[in-house]
């Protein structure tokens, strides 16, 4: 093959690869409205539920994943009431977060503070260890498709072994109720605990028919796990994603597109993951709505082929 033909053929191949990448991004976006995890506006939403949700809708978000509220229930409402409010604002309630066991701070963790710098006091929360059926029933009553375990202690082998039956019984109850149960990771699940990663234990010991995963792409990246490799290893097991970003030191959470997480590459490989919905999240931002505005602009403008 002479140089001219070689360059012509490799040029065609490169163009083909670019077009495939662009098409993969288009496919990843098609049919997947941009969602938001309400933990991002935890401080604001309990002060002004309707106003907060309207601002979210006005920014262009379409799908909602709810979380813990200081008011109890679903931001002070019953499941059907909250769902009705969302519908009135043009929002769709897709998922709800709960904790797996009674809340306790991770070992050596610093005291939590809110965006105002004041201590963040968390009241008692219902959890899957003690209230799994009640929580499943409420989500089903609200017509929510997914119930997600936001976290469960995994710092010791004993905690991991305790977690597996809690997650399994919840997954079984959710399946009976017509709800898909998922587990949401932080970075701890990808760190060795007595030579084993909790994520691998959950994936191997709990059937994929019972439990899926909501992959927090930034926390997985921080832990050194490659999201795309996880997609390939556990094809179709990640119907939900959390989308946030990290600074170069992976120490500070940033609006999407402002950090080091390679979202173009991740979204181009979305098909293997089985992703159905993704939710923008920013833990304890200084300005929640500014962060959400920056994030959705990135999602719309930068990821658009």
What does this structure look like?
There is one protein chain. The protein is α/β, with parallel strands linked by helices and 305 residues long. The chain has helices at 3-29, 42-45, 49-59, 79-88, 128-141, 157-176, 198-205, 217-222, 227-233, 263-268, 270-273, 288-302, and strands spanning 34-37, 63-66, 92-99, 146-151, 180-184, 211-216, 240-243, 245-246, 253-254, 277-280. It is globular, with a radius of gyration of 20 Å. The mean pLDDT is 90.
Short description:
With 305 residues, the protein is α/β, with parallel strands linked by helices. It has helices at 3-29, 42-45, 49-59, 79-88, 128-141, 157-176, 198-205, 217-222, 227-233, 263-268, 270-273, 288-302, and strands at 34-37, 63-66, 92-99, 146-151, 180-184, 211-216, 240-243, 245-246, 253-254, 277-280. It has an eight-stranded parallel β-barrel, surrounded by four helices. A two-stranded antiparallel sheet has the order 8-9.
- Name of the CATH first level of the largest domain: Alpha Beta
What's the structural domain tally?
A: 2
* Structural class computed from helices and strand pairing: alpha/beta
Strand content: 5-15%
Q: What is the fold-level CATH name, i.e. the topology of the largest domain? A: TIM Barrel
Helix content: 40-55%
Shape: globular
Q: What's the total number of strands?
A: 10
- Low-confidence stretches are none
Distance from first to last alpha carbon: 34 Å
CATH architecture of the largest domain: Alpha-Beta Barrel
Instruction: Let me know the average pLDDT.
Output: 90
Q: How much is the radius of gyration in Å?
A: 20 Å
Number of helices: 12
CATH evolutionary superfamily of the largest domain: Divalent-metal-dependent TIM barrel enzymes
Largest sheet: 8 strands, parallel, barrel
**What is the spatial order of strands in the main beta sheet?**
1-2-3-4-5-6-7-10
H/E element order: HEHHEHEHEHEHEHHEEEHHEH
